[in-house]
Write a structure and sequence with these properties.
There is one protein chain. α9 crosses α11 and α13 (228-240) crosses α14. The protein has helices at residues 10-15, 21-28, 32-39, 50-59, 63-85, 92-97, 102-117, 122-129, 134-144, 157-173, 177-193, 208-225, 228-240, 242-255, 274-286, 289-306, 314-325, 331-345. The mean pLDDT is 92. Helices cover 67% and strands 0% of the residues. It is elongated and about 75 Å long. The protein is mostly helical and 348 residues long. The protein is built from 18 helices and no strands.
């Protein structure tokens, strides 16, 4: 791409290297007639074959970088236009300067477009369900965020409102494993930025889809509001409702990709929580006291039953808990953390 984002011809890309048409043909192994057809055409990437492009990328500096940049910018520009048509404006500076890979962010913007268009189809559910995972989830979080310089949309309120409207309709119209995941993803993101969805704990024998959505809402509210009492209510709910326990045990390993997604929400009998441990250590450091209490009172004890070695990171976990626990003002959190540390020290 040029500085202003305009496409470049093959001759423009190679000019500063002093390469002419014959040089490019010789280095790439392509016929000169093939290079000739591409040489001065700014749309050459749409015309070149996959095999010819591979030859150019492997022999001419700058071709691979330009190809990726062009594809990303082209998709970005189309999405920006489509989003503008539904009332959403993209903050280009935040998009380009984000540490999250651009491809993840563009996928998240496409998800936003699906949500605002509001079509409760299987295709919509299937696409949004793909955001169950730590990297896609962090990209989607930036689409819902209104933090200056961080949020990718100038004003995500239309997206939030559309999300609240779409989530229940996805269940009614397209009930499936993907719809369960999609509703959870949407509800979780909304709950991290607004109180528009309530945590429906205490329902009589909740269905799997409503229980999983409730978990997503609880996690979002904990992150958003630092509600220690909600974390305690959730812990007690797991003691009396096996379905919540099963979903809780399944969630982290699949989110962190220690286990493949399973439509029956089961895990392999033998499982190392290596990626899960890395994610938990990250969350201990960055999230608030209520979420930390959820980790030490609910998830980490459950994870240790599944994998007593905690992905080989018991020592790192002890260090992280001791460092974080001393800063908690709530006595209950400190006591729970200290008890867990003593248990872990008995393992190593």
């Amino acid at each position: 791409m040029t500085a202003d984002g305009e496409p470049k011809s093959l001759s423009e890309i190679t000019k500063d290297m002093g390469l002419n048409m014959s040089d490019v043909a010789a280095f790439s192994g392509l016929d000169e007639s093939t290079v000739f057809r591409l040489w001065d055409n700014v749309e050459w990437l749409d015309r070149v074959s996959g095999r010819s492009l591979q030859s150019l990328m492997s022999s001419i500096p700058g071709i691979a970088e330009y190809s990726m940049s062009h594809a990303v910018h082209k998709r970005r520009d189309i999405l920006i236009g489509d989003l503008h048509d539904v009332g959403l404006s993209v903050d280009l500076s935040a998009l380009e300067n984000s540490p999250v890979p651009q491809q993840h962010l563009l996928n998240a913007l496409e998800a936003a477009l699906c949500i605002v268009r509001g079509e409760p189809t299987q295709k919509t559910s299937s696409f949004i369900a793909r955001f169950w995972g730590n990297e896609p989830d962090r990209a989607l979080e930036l689409i819902y965020s209104d933090a200056p310089g961080r949020g990718i949309l100038h004003d995500p309120q239309i997206l939030r409102d559309s999300s609240v409207d779409l989530a229940p309709r996805l269940h009614r119209k397209t009930y499936s494993f993907h719809s369960i995941l999609a509703v959870n993803v949407i509800a979780h993101q909304v709950s991290k930025v607004t109180d528009a969805i309530e945590a429906d704990l205490g329902s009589n024998v909740p269905a799997r889809q409503s229980a999983f959505m409730t978990r997503g809402v609880v996690m979002g509210i904990l992150i958003n509001s630092d509600d220690v009492e909600l974390a305690e209510r959730y812990r007690r709910e797991l003691e009396t409702t096996p379905l919540y326990t099963a979903l809780e045990e399944w969630a982290f390993p699949t989110y962190a990709r220690d286990s493949r997604l399973s439509s029956d929400f089961t895990l392999p009998s033998s499982l190392s929580l290596r990626n899960t441990a890395t994610e938990v250590l990250r969350e201990i450091a960055v999230y608030n006291d209520a979420y930390f209490y959820y980790l030490v009172s609910t998830y980490i004890p459950l994870a240790l039953k599944r994998d007593p070695a905690f992905g080989g990171k018991i020592v790192e976990l002890i260090q992280a808990l001791e460092l974080r626990g001393v800063d908690c003002r709530d006595r209950r959190i400190r006591q729970t953390c200290n008890a867990l540390v003593r248990q872990l020290k008995g393992i190593v």
